[in-house]
Design a protein that fits this description.
This protein is α/β, with parallel strands linked by helices. The chain has eleven helices and five strands; from the N terminus they run H-H-H-H-E-H-H-H-H-E-E-E-H-E-H-H.
Length: about 270
């Protein structure tokens, strides 16, 4: 019995290149998954070789894209990735494929939230006023503790870190700042924030323990105050050379453990 010849599909080279580069997958990983060579992948990108429909189905699965996206006449214009503040040598703007998917998924949730809010005539613009990096991070932190009614007494009454996390999440959502939690390689990203569209979105990494997630949450909130979409690796124990990361770390530390509370506790 003769074997059925694979159905070759015309794919616009620029579309395939966009889908590959926006996937987080390397050409080598794609070639291995399709059981072919990197040379063949490069030929598909250049238009010299046509992928089979079965190969497109497999790419759709691993890229988490609909098959129809490979049949577009030109690449879609997508929102930019957040500014990379991870300070990782040789990895600037290079992300793990899981992190790439989480960023895309968060963008989609942001769009859906905006559409749903528009349908019920709800304003999604953040209620938070921006600050300047020249503002004292500790003073700004105390101001927002007061705004969020996070007194020392209230903070001490939380029985677990989860209670504090949930309190902060609810407070931020009241300010039209939406919090999502997803799993990403923790060495690739601990959190990111989108402020260029409404509603403002914060994402923290569920692979972190709850204490680290709380710190990341407030560190990312610091970036919201400064008005910048970023992805980074917040760390309370790390001293950053970058002024923006340093400010956000100081803000998060002062918000979660003000000096007067630290003195009384220790």
């Amino acid at each position: 019995m003769a074997r059925t010849k694979p159905i070759a599909v015309n794919v616009e080279p620029s579309v395939l290149k966009w889908l590959i580069e926006s996937s987080g997958w390397t050409r080598e990983e794609i070639a291995k998954r399709l059981n072919t060579s990197t040379q063949n992948i490069e030929k598909m990108e250049s238009g010299e070789k046509k992928p089979s429909f079965r190969q497109l189905e497999e790419l759709a699965v691993i890229f988490k894209r609909p098959v129809a996206s490979f049949l577009l006449s030109k690449p879609l214009t997508e929102k930019p990735k957040p500014k990379d503040y991870r300070m990782l040598p040789d990895k600037t703007n290079k992300f793990d494929k899981k992190t790439v998917f989480v960023m895309r998924h968060a963008r989609r949730l942001q769009e859906l939230s905006k559409e749903l809010s528009r349908n019920v005539d709800y304003e999604t613009k953040s209620k938070i006023e921006k600050v300047k990096i020249t503002d004292n991070a500790e003073i700004v932190a105390i101001k927002f503790r007061e705004k969020f009614n996070l007194t020392e007494e209230k903070q001490r009454k939380f029985k677990t870190p989860y209670e504090l996390f949930n309190y902060l999440r609810d407070i931020l959502e009241d300010q039209n700042i939406y919090l999502f939690q997803f799993s990403m390689p923790v060495e690739d990203a601990r959190g990111f924030v989108f402020v260029d569209e409404t509603p403002t979105v914060i994402v923290v990494n569920t692979k972190d323990n709850i204490e680290a997630r709380i710190f990341s949450l407030m560190h990312e909130f610091g970036h919201i105050l400064l008005g910048e979409s970023v992805i980074d690796l917040p760390d309370a124990t790390h001293t950053f050379k970058d002024d923006v990361e340093k400010w956000c770390n100081e803000f998060a530390s002062a918000f979660l453990l003000p000096k007067q509370i630290a003195k009384s506790a220790f």
